[in-house]
Give the backbone structure.
Amino acid sequence: MKKMKRDTAALAKQKYDLIIIGGGIFGICAAWDATLRGLSVVLIEKEDFAHGTSANHFKMVHGGIRYLQHGDIVRVRESCRERSALMRIAPHLVKPLPIVMPTYGHGMKGKEILSMGMLLYDLLTLDRNAKLPAENKIPFGKCLSKSKIIELFPDIKSKGLTGGALFYDGQIQNPPRLAMSFLRSAVKEGAAAANYLEVTDLLRENNQVTGVKVKDKLASVDFIIQGKVVLNAAGPWAHHLLKSTLNLKLTPTPIFSRDLAFVIPRRITGKFALACTTSSSDVDVFFDRGGRHLFIVPWRNYTLVGVWHKIFDEKPENIKVTSEELQDFVDEINIAYPGAKINRSEISMVNTGLTLFGEDEQQGSKTMSFGKRSYLFDHSKEDQLDGLITLIGVRATTARGMAEKAIDMVLIKLGVKKIRSKSAQIPIYGGKNFKNLLQTTQHQGQLSMLPNVVQNALFYNYGSEYINVLKYASNAPALLKNFINSTVLKAEIIHAIREEMAEKLADVVFRRTDFGTGAIPASSVIDECGTIMANEKGWDELQLKAEIDDVKAKFLQYLDSA
Ligand SMILES: Cc1cc2nc3c(=O)[nH]c(=O)nc-3n(C[C@H](O)[C@H](O)[C@H](O)COP(=O)(O)OP(=O)(O)OC[C@H]3O[C@@H](n4cnc5c(N)ncnc54)[C@H](O)[C@@H]3O)c2cc1C
């Protein structure tokens, strides 16, 4: 397995078919799809891979049933196709998520309309289980009786309750690890990638973009990378980058929403997620069911609660959540589902980021119109500038599919024969031979020395490549221990540094391991993790302290409002 090496000197020596700006899930999926089609690719990320929205989302892989109420069949099909693709290529990281939606009365919020919707969805998605492993197959939706709903959610509002609907989305075990699995696959196929490399300029000769100027943030040097096509996948930064470098404006102007969800370190519902209806509603729904939905979702040993949307037109760096807002959200969810009984002080993590919301519309947070389509823009048409494509993604769910479309465009630009994309079929890092891993290996070798919860975390984060982590403990038994109150193995720290380009302690804590995904680890754990990393990287006392302080400050920043 080829390791990820940060070799910036090599990047300046080659002319790539494709330069991708942005190491979020969309840019990373594009790198994977492009390398599979034989292109030479470099992916450039100004911070760490997936540090932005891609590490901070709600972990749902939408199956598309909700888009039926907008009458958007194309989106229903797209979401379902991508949910199937992810569960096929990353079975270790993506699992079906059963969701229950209670029904009230017999009108638009009633059981009859919802059961018709589920039937229609099932008919539209009959192919959804093609080539999926048995445990990831999505069953038909089902109507539940009123008594079943009360049994599952004893504190549900019972006035007018007529029953409920059970349907399925998918859920991601660990979003930054999903991004990393895609990236490792791309690197294995030959892609180059570097974090902490910021694109500061886009280079053009006449009407052709020819490359990018970058700043190496770790070495404080600037250099140029040449490419035949540049894919701007810089997410919420994409249009700022176009403006500041080429003075281009995207038309229509993308509007972003600050999305927010939070984590509670206990299970509120059992194995089912609960969709709760709130008082604000979508402005553009086809079948208005009189409110929009917040979700209470079981995830590992936690509960995810969200998602709230608010139009945000500042720079992504300025994103913040006030304490009052968070209290309002807690109040809203407690009203929607009194059984939640959430206290603000319980919140163990706040996830927020910017999501594409719509185009050119100014809509307040009370009238929700969700972002519907990702933004794929060929600048040769509007701006008469060739060699440049912009892709701004609307949902992580559809990143692979949109990446495939973007690479179709790249192939046309390069004038090469269309090679069919295989990224929906080929398992990504850890996804191959995942079936039965748990049953067949748990009593073998080093694994048998680990508690079951640690084994599970290893399997679901690294899939069939878990062995790449354990090998670091072969000659160093101390690394075969998990950190206190955590399922993270000490060997994972070494693995992240040597194989996954972890440059900073924050990279290890927030994006390579499970440490920073649900709650703040104990201070002593962060210190110990830092010490292992300092030994590996040769940091002095001063740098170690700075790295630890940085991680602790980031955790506080997440929870500042809580
Ligand atoms: C709270 C919340 C909940 C959500 N829930 C879900 C969900 O449940 N399911 C779902 O499917 N989607 C969800 N989404 C949406 C999803 O997270 C996004 O659609 C997706 O992560 C966007 O990925 P991206 O790669 O486009 O952007 P990003 O992850 O933001 O990546 C863009 C990258 O570009 C880099 N970059 C920017 N400028 C430069 C530069 N000059 N040089 C180099 N690199 C640069 C940035 O550093 C960044 O890493 C949610 C979003 C939020 C905020």
In short: The chain has three domains: 8-53+176-250+376-414, 59-173+254-368, 437-559. The radius of gyration is 23 Å.
